Amino acid sequence: MMYAIDESADQAVPRTQEEANELARQALKKMGAAQVFLTKVRPSPERPYLSPAVMRLRLVPKYHPSLTTAAVDACWRLYFSPVFVMTSSVELLAAVIEHEIWHLLLDHHRVAEKAKIPKWASTVWNIAADCEIHNDEILFKRLTDNGFKGLNYKKIGCKRQRTLIEYYNELMERAIIYRTAASHEVYINHQMPQEQYDFIDQEMGGISVTYKGSKVK
Q1: Mind listing the pLDDT tens digit of every residue in the chain (217 residues)?
Q2: What is the model's pTM?
Q3: Class of the domain covering 1-105
Q4: What are phi and psi of 166, to 5 degrees?
Q5: Helix (H) or strand (E) holding 207
Q6: Strands (E), 49-174
Q7: Domains in the chain: boundaries
Q8: For residue 127, what are the contacts with CB-CB under 8 A and spacing of at least 6?
Q9: Which strands form 70-72's sheet, in the order they lie side by side?
């Protein structure tokens, strides 16, 4: 799943089942166009394995408060918010698809199981996984150039690029979890830029709880 300070979160959602179904159909078609863009229009010659990975994905539109962008599961299903898709460019969606594929290629689901990450720390783990993916500065630039305010090692206060486990261990040492009335958890780092901190503090209305988590070996 991708974490970002995302202004599309307050976009109007469908009010009827018919509107929701139609928006989902349009979004599915647009995601298909983004797949074509990623594999045909702007393929990566140095990464020929991306094309079959892109086409292996099963696209699943989904309306859920916790899904504001896109996410994948271990079965290669890519869930996406139709509202996010319809308010984003094809270029951004192509970059989002590539990001989600890297969660699968890097086997983040299996690594999380092996590391026995506690459920309450899943948000921190997911952001660490995003940061590992965004070690690819070209991909991260494609996301940010198209308006997506994602997270990388600089934005979470790390001085250098790290592995997933290294990111997680460092973040757990200085993590603040915001718990909201809706039981959502949003990770805030002490060294995150002030404007991002203010946005989440204002929008989520959470109460901060500091955790000292154990490191993963």
Answers
A1: 554 434 444 456 788 999 999 999 999 999 999 999 998 877 666 677 788 999 999 999 999 988 999 999 999 999 999 999 999 999 999 999 999 999 999 999 999 999 998 887 888 899 899 999 999 999 999 999 999 988 899 888 888 999 999 999 888 776 655 444 344 444 444 444 444 444 444 443 333 434 444 444 4
A2: 0.76
A3: alpha beta
A4: -65, -45
A5: strand 207-211
A6: 58-61, 70-72, 77-80
A7: 1-105, 117-217
A8: 3, 151, 156, 167, 171, 187
A9: 58-61, 77-80, 70-72
